[in-house]
Description:
Blueprint: E1 9-14, H1 21-32, E2 36-38, H2 57-62, E3 65-66, H3 79-96, E4 99-103, H4 107-114, H5 125-138, H6 140-150, H7 152-157, H8 163-176, E5 194-200, H9 204-221, H10 223-229, H11 245-251, H12 257-280, E6 285-288, H13 293-305
Parallel strand pairs: 1-4, 1-5, 2-3, 2-4, 5-6
Helix pairs in contact: 3-4, 5-6, 5-8, 6-8, 9-12, 11-12
Amino acid sequence: MPSSPKLKTLIVIVGPTAIGKTALAIEVARHFKTEIISADSRQFYKEMEIGTAKPDLGELTAAKHHFIDSHSVNTLFSTGDFELEALKTVEEIFKNHDLAIMVGGSGLYINAVVNGLDEMPEIDLKIREKLNKQFLEEGIVVIQNQLKEYDPEYFEKVDQNNPQRMIRGLEVYLSTGKKLSSMLSATKKQRPFNIIKIGLNTDRAKLYEQINTRVDKMIALGLVEEVKSLSEFRKYNALNTVGYTEVFDYLDKKISLDEAILSIKQNTRRFAKRQLTWFRRDEEINWFQPNQTEEILNLISEQLKKV
């Protein structure tokens, strides 16, 4: 009997912001001569450059990337949309390569591709309208506190500075009486490919130092000017994110520039902590330090022999 065809493999590289995921993904892509899918929900948007720490021109040239500058901030691009489009892209890459790489720190987007999303319940649009109105009139803290009370698991998982994510969790609970956290990948979908998961982490003090250095670099590169140029888009959800909301507060004269920079650093550190909390729950992730490229390539090669 002829042997069955070998399964293709998706290598998933995860970890907190500023840890060095992009550099590793490029090394792995070059070693295995393949392409990269970005699963960073902020790098999709072409108008947002400096504050999203996108791969630079040299990095984009070193390996082909997908989902960088793929959408505009005024386009609604949901986790479900990403699941469908990313799976199509994986399929395309597999036509010419045995491996594909997905890299990013957005746990929901990674989860959508690896495990699939459950069908989301019908939402009472009046509840959504009421919550949006409440956010505009009373601010995000009121929304955060409600979500923390009703669905603390979801609250801990997502970007707490993202009003759309906060409202999403609340509207599901208030419409159905069920927690959104209990609906996320309750049933794991089988994918027609093998998956190898690599996680990067390092000493917390070192990570925080790298985050602070990255923020200082963003400011030096012109983050304030970039945010100023995006004022007309500030109502869109894509701009409700760390690095942009703080600079908008500075431009609105609510805080000084020094305060804005400190806030960006603090909020980014909190975000990194939440990312690690999310990824640590996944027992399939093989954890490494960012400088262990050789060990990572060896592990991937060994795992590929078993496929």
